[in-house]
Design brief:
Blueprint: H1 16-20, E1 35-42, E2 45-47, E3 55-63, E4 77-86, E5 103-105, E6 107-108, E7 113-117, H2 118-126, H3 132-142, H4 148-163, H5 169-186, E8 188-199, E9 204-216, E10 230-235, E11 243-247, E12 255-258, E13 263-270, E14 277-279, E15 285-287, E16 290-296, E17 300-301, E18 305-307, E19 321-324, E20 334-343, E21 348-357, H6 360-363, E22 379-381
Parallel strand pairs: 2-9, 12-21
Antiparallel strand pairs: 1-3, 3-7, 4-5, 4-8, 6-7, 8-9, 10-11, 10-13, 12-22, 13-19, 14-15, 16-18, 16-20, 17-19, 20-21
Length: about 400
């Protein structure tokens, strides 16, 4: 927020009418327009070494309001999804510019996914061979003192040039082999680029999204990261036993029945073994950092994000959220909710469910009802599981 300079306090009153007329902005958690919520990579870290190269499947999580605003054509539909991959970027100092042209990939529009073989990355690195002199000159400006592999390679490169009167041709092949060895040893941060085209019968909209996937040598001592697996639970009334709505990898037709104006008290819980420990920069083992994003096409969340961050390590985690449902005049027959979990090592997963509006027999007071009558609490509907509370907080 901008503040007035210290020498203009007397002008503050001029801003009051403007401040009073500032419009209310819709929260980021409310899906009013087509949006790429995220891209899940399975797995988020891929085994990559000269002997074997693993594979990865990327799936886009897309969202759009099911009912267009009054007077708008509707609804938005995905017409095209274009995937490309940058096998090697030039790092932060070059604004992550791709070292070679992005390579198109053949995706599946019906599943909103694309499959990528690690062997293609190995082949793509071969494209750097004729660019080796330029890449090494660039690395001289960006390499850190801790990267002994590249420092040794640059030293060997300069010695080769001196031996050959600055002729690069005799030095390129051995330098490239050394460069590839260093890249594999360090691991490759590969960037996938998704371009989605939406149409609604009148307008066309294109959105770009990016997903990083780490390709590295996976060992028993340093296993690959997994996506954050969790379940989502409903607390029908404050203090009551939780009921499970759904979990990552679970059924996609989970539903919660509720009435206008009610609150949905939601709680994510880690699936057993899902929150992993990994070595920190100091060598100590530490738990992954997770944060949750909460999104819906209707209603209002108490907060748009929750996380495993706490002030003190012994403080209890506060991961839950409350979704205030719209009043009767704004409540559609049903609408979707998405809860997305991300960790600090490129992992991402999500759950989704539908909020279904109860009928009048459920949500309106019957004849002769007392003044303090309340509709039944929200409930999880079959086929979603309705187990009592459980799982790790």
């Amino acid at each position: 927020m901008r503040t007035l300079p210290a020498w203009t306090p007397g002008l503050a009153w001029l801003l009051l009418p403007t401040a009073a007329c500032t419009p209310d902005f819709d929260p980021q958690s409310l899906i009013l327009e087509p949006r790429v919520i995220g891209i899940r990579a399975d797995p988020p870290e891929v085994d990559f070494q000269p002997e074997t190269q693993g594979d990865v499947t990327l799936t886009a999580l897309l969202a759009a309001p099911e009912e267009p605003p009054d007077g708008a054509p509707g609804p938005w539909e995905v017409q095209e999804m274009r995937w490309t991959v940058c096998p090697l970027n030039l790092g932060a100092q070059a604004a992550y510019r791709c070292a070679i042209d992005e390579t198109p990939l053949e995706g599946d529009l019906s599943t909103r996914s694309v499959f990528f073989e690690g062997a293609l990355l190995w082949a793509a690195l071969e494209l750097l061979r004729p660019l080796t002199p330029d890449v090494l000159e660039f690395l001289k400006q960006t390499v850190t003192q801790s990267d002994t592999c590249l420092l040794d390679l640059l030293k060997t490169w300069d010695q080769c040039l001196q031996t050959n009167d600055q002729e690069t041709a005799p030095c390129v092949d051995p330098a490239f082999e050394g460069l590839r060895t260093c890249l594999v040893e360090a691991g490759q941060d590969v960037t996938f680029h998704l371009q989605v085209t939406w149409e609604n019968g009148r307008d066309t909209r294109t959105q770009d999204a990016y997903k990083r996937v780490f390709f590295r040598r996976v060992t028993a001592d340093n296993p690959a990261n997994r996506n954050p697996a969790f379940s989502l639970w409903l607390e029908p009334t404050e203090g009551a036993d939780l009921r499970r709505i759904t979990a990552t990898g679970g059924p996609s037709d989970a539903r919660v029945l509720a009435c206008p104006g009610q609150d949905l008290r939601l709680e994510p819980r880690f699936l057993p073994g899902a929150r992993e420990a990994h070595p920190s920069e100091t060598g100590q083992m530490e738990d992954e950092y997770w944060f949750f994003s909460w999104l819906a096409t209707w209603g209002e969340f108490d907060r748009i994000k929750s996380s495993t961050a706490t002030v003190n390590p012994t403080d209890p985690l506060q991961l839950g959220n409350v979704l205030a449902l719209p009043e009767a005049e704004d409540f559609p027959e049903s609408f979707p909710v998405w809860v997305v979990a991300r960790d600090d090592r490129l992992g991402m997963d999500f759950v989704t469910f539908q909020v279904q509006r109860g009928d009048d027999d459920r949500c309106l007071p019957p004849d002769g009802a007392p003044k303090d009558w309340q509709p039944p609490a929200p409930e999880v509907l079959p086929p979603a599981l309705a187990e009592t509370t459980g799982g790790a907080p």
